[in-house]
Write a structure and sequence with these properties.
Pfam family, one: adh_short
Oligomer: single chain
Number of helices: 6
Number of domains: 1
Largest sheet: 7 strands, parallel
Strand order of the largest sheet: 3-2-1-4-5-6-7
InterPro entries: NAD(P)-bd_dom_sf (IPR036291), SDR_fam (IPR002347)
CATH topology: Rossmann fold
Order of helices and strands: EHEHEHEHEHEHE
GO molecular function: oxidoreductase activity
Structural class: alpha/beta
Number of strands: 7
Distance between the termini: 92 Å
Keywords: Oxidoreductase
Protein name: Ketoreductase (KR) domain-containing protein
Shape: globular
CATH superfamily: NAD(P)-binding Rossmann-like Domain
């Protein structure tokens, strides 16, 4: 193994499942700066792509359960169990006939959506939690699923039995999806959640810069009725 990785089991490890140029990269940079071992997984990542950053690259197709299991094994062979696992996987599907006809989505696309947001998300969380149980008792543990404002029941179910779980999404000041999301903001918020050490509310919405999203109060209109003399 290249010395550029400088693997150390004395440092906490973050495992980013679903690594890309935006959110995944921002989170990896922040945690690397804070002294973490960083392992990143995707279908296309190559070790040479991230060697200069000091990350461990793990080839993983999250659409295949066997790949998920192999990816965790590969990461743990180098660093041991991860203290932080990020599930940053999305599969957007739009109905060909438009939003008025959602059943025009093909079965294959529908199944892929359900698998990635449900079955395979569960498997990543299960393996993450199994690793958490093997960490030293005083080591903070954290699992974060990234997403948008359309959070699912699966995410609420996963919190049961997890050490610390969050469903985190960057939103616009109005509370809608933020496009594009800000990579560095995700890194800042995720590391802040790690430092909290205790479970807060499972759903975290934040705006660019990292401040928690606060619903804006609706303006109050005052109507005045004048009675004619």
């Amino acid at each position: 193994m290249s010395s550029s990785l400088s693997p150390s089991t004395s440092k906490p490890t973050i495992f980013i499942v679903g690594f890309g140029r935006n959110i995944g990269s921002g989170v990896a940079r922040k945690f690397k700066k804070e002294g973490f071992n960083v392992a990143v997984a995707s279908r296309t990542v190559e070790q040479m792509d991230v060697l200069s950053d000091g990350y461990l690259a793990v080839k993983m197709d999250v659409g295949k359960v066997a790949d998920i299991e192999r990816g965790f094994e590969e990461m743990e062979q180098v660093y041991g169990p991860a203290a932080v696992v990020i599930y940053n996987v999305a599969h957007a599907t739009f109905a060909p006939a438009g939003p008025s006809n959602p059943l025009s989505i093909s079965f294959q696309n529908f199944y892929a959506n359900v698998a990635l947001s449900g079955v395979h998300a569960f498997e990543v969380a299960r393996l993450a939690n199994a690793g958490f149980d093997r960490l030293p008792e005083n080591t903070p543990r954290l699992f974060i699923a990234t997403g948008n404002v359309l959070s699912s029941m699966t995410d609420r179910v996963l919190i049961t039995g997890m050490n610390r779980f969050y469903y985190a999404s960057e939103v616009s000041p109005q509370g809608g999806p933020q496009n594009p999301p800000d990579a560095d903001t995700h890194g800042l918020v995720f590391h802040r959640l790690y430092q909290q050490r205790v479970q807060g509310h499972w759903e975290v919405r934040f705006v660019r810069g990292g401040a928690p999203w606060q619903p804006r109060p609706k303006p109050c209109s005052l109507g005045i009725i004048l009675n004619p003399a």
